[in-house]
Design goal:
Shape: elongated
Strand content: under 5%
Protein name: DUF4386 domain-containing protein
Helix content: over 70%
Number of domains: 1
Number of strands: 0
Largest sheet: none
Radius of gyration: 21 Å
Keywords: Membrane, Transmembrane, Transmembrane helix
Amino acid sequence: MNRQRARLAAGTGLLFAALFVVALLLLRRAPGLAAPDDRYASFQAGGGDGLLVAVGLYLAPLAGIAFLWHMTAVRALLDTLVPAPPAMAHGLNLLSGVLFVAMLFAATASVAAPALASWLGQAPPVAPDVARALTAVGYALFFVFAVRGAGMFAITTTTLLRAGGVLPGPVALIGYLLAAFLLLAASTEPATTLVLPAWVVLIAVSLLVHTRRDRPAAPAAEPAPS
């Protein structure tokens, strides 16, 4: 296995997980779907929460870029493994990763648009019904579409790394369970957002452990001439 590519995949994966979690924690400061109208009105009036949500919005594309780096590094690593990854699984891996990033960008933009408009101060406050509708669209894009794309990416990546001998059986099993949750779960609970970064951290740590085990043995010292 190419240790340099494995370390790059692990490092960018850990960076994505950190940025992703921080961005979503900040975006959660925006009013939820069940928030009353006065909560939306006070949020639009300004304050620290709007600034925090705007910061979360700017962090989300950085997390997406880190994920693209992670995905590309993983795919470059897969190309060095034997046997070569099947073309169909390799293609699905790419498409599902791109789908996840596209839906992540659209979802976070929808949820944070009222906060960004309020923070910039260049637009009138968004009516509570409009803000609630934008939030609903953002939730649908993320929890229905982005999470499914992430689940497909996790399943294909786990399968390909397992077939290449990178992931041990127990780690692959955990990876499949997390991927299945992403693919099948119908939930908008905040804990759902932590499943993908948990899977990425699992893969990143496994890659780092594998690179340490895969180090070439030091050449034996030649006996001194008598």
